[in-house]
């Protein structure tokens, strides 16, 4: 919440607002992004820091960020040792942000910097999470349809009420950020974790622009992984589906068995007939078993990932941040 009096002031003072921006090969947008961000935030007049997380970019992004820091010390950067993925980059930013309010936004200008003051104002009203909800997507029909069906499915199956059409673009109170940083899970789906926290959350509607430049870094496979992460991490429905399917197949098998036995003794027919039905049943059950194993495997894979207890990311270079970790 807006009151910062009890929060400890670290060294040269805690900025009121941190803005976390994951960056993966965004050299074409960084200049424009920086210009818009700085002019909006300077006009707003609150002390702030811009915390970029370079997610193993292979273009000039990192060099540009170094230069930005030299020109303005409020611009900081953590460079990950390789590409860890958007969600992990955001988590890394959350672990290192110092502000009392922490904003997460994309680096491709799809999230307009101009609404940041509005998010902060909402936070001052006493909300712990202000999540931006896009009114309209400016993307091609296929991608829009994919997103729509994903959010619909997630909404139907998830045990959490993850708000429709909200991405990671949001403002979180320090309290929420600390909670997120303490969550040890490796398969991060930040908007899910954010919803899980609860507290006082409110939407803020805005219009999502098209990407400023460059290509979306989410190809179809990456997007499907994210969707799967969302589904498997916040729902037991796939597992329940498997057991229901197993039940259904066993019941029909039992019924068919009864029919065969009755047919054998009352109808007096032999068992040689029925090769087709045998094969069909065999294939069907085989298919169901493989599918079920696959779904269970998804959960086991995640368990395996979690028990390894590897760090989520490796920071290769810190630009403008002290070397020792903030005590958690
Ligand atoms: N991003 C990242 N690591 C990745 C992929 C993307 O840090 O592996 C960043 C990217 O630079 C951008 C944000 O995450 O700032 C959102 O990515 P993108 O615009 O490609 O996703 P979309 O808007 O298409 O969902
Ligand atoms: Mg984008």
Question: What is the fold's blueprint, element by element?
Answer:
Layout: E1 17-23, H1 27-44, E2 48-54, H2 61-71, E3 75-80, H3 86-96, E4 101-104, H4 116-124, E5 129-134, H5 141-157, E6 166-173, H6 174-182, H7 190-197, E7 201-206, H8 220-233, H9 237-267, H10 275-307, E8 315-319
Parallel strand pairs: 1-2, 1-4, 2-3, 5-7
Antiparallel strand pairs: 3-8, 4-6, 5-6
Helix pairs in contact: 9-10
The structure holds uridine-5'-diphosphate and magnesium ion.
Supply the key terms.
single chain, 328 residues, alpha/beta, Spore Coat Polysaccharide Biosynthesis Protein SpsA, Chain A, 2 domains, eight-stranded mixed beta sheet, 8 strands, disordered N terminus, binds uridine-5'-diphosphate, binds magnesium ion
- How would you name the CATH homologous superfamily of the largest domain? Spore Coat Polysaccharide Biosynthesis Protein SpsA, Chain A
The tally of strands reads: 8
Whole-number count of domains: 2
Q: What spatial order of strands do you see in the largest sheet? A: 7-5-6-4-1-2-3-8
What is the gyration radius calculated from CA atoms?
25 Å
Q: Mean of residue pLDDT? A: 81
Can you walk me through this structure?
Helix 1 links the parallel strand 1 and strand 2 (48-54). Helices cover 49% and strands 15% of the residues. The protein has helices at residues 27-44, 61-71, 86-96, 116-124, 141-157, 174-182, 190-197, 220-233, 237-267, 275-307, and strands at 17-23, 48-54, 75-80, 101-104, 129-134, 166-173, 201-206, 315-319. The model is unreliable at 1-11 (pLDDT under 50). The two termini are 19 Å apart. It is an alpha/beta fold and 328 residues long. Uridine-5'-diphosphate (UDP) binds at residues 22-24, 26, 55, 83, 85-86, 89, 106-108, 110, 216-218. Uridine-5'-diphosphate binds at residues 22-24, 26, 55, 83, 85-86, 89, 106-108, 110, 216-218.
